[in-house]
Amino acid sequence: MKEQETTYELSEFKAASKALCPRCRKGKIFTGNTYGFKTQKMNTHCDYCGLRYEREPGYFYVSMFVSYAFTVAEMITACVAAYVITGNDNSFWLYSIVALLTVFILSPFNYRYSRVVLMYWLSPGLNYNPNIKQKEINPTSRTL
Length: 144
Fold this sequence. Notes:
single chain; mainly alpha; two-stranded antiparallel ribbon; 3 helices
């Protein structure tokens, strides 16, 4: 009697939150943690399916706009939270410090997930393929 290999598919949101390849959902897009002492680097290709992440030169320039949207939403949320907590509505320095700390603390998150959002939801033709097979790729130059 053969043992059946049980596999499960990650949902699109869960795979994106783990920063996995948008085509196979198995290979990692980044090396390292979002917050850590080592810098996070982006792999050039998926280790599992061989997908080249930078589809064309300048592809990730669009992620700057996604990162900008993240930053604006985070700053507004942080400043509204500061107002709700303190009740102070006329302190320029309070809101400046809160906004700058928010941008500084969340910049590694924005760097990583602006690229993930670009690949998962803003790139036409880059879709999940559950039937993709593992491929061998050239082991040189895997990080950007």
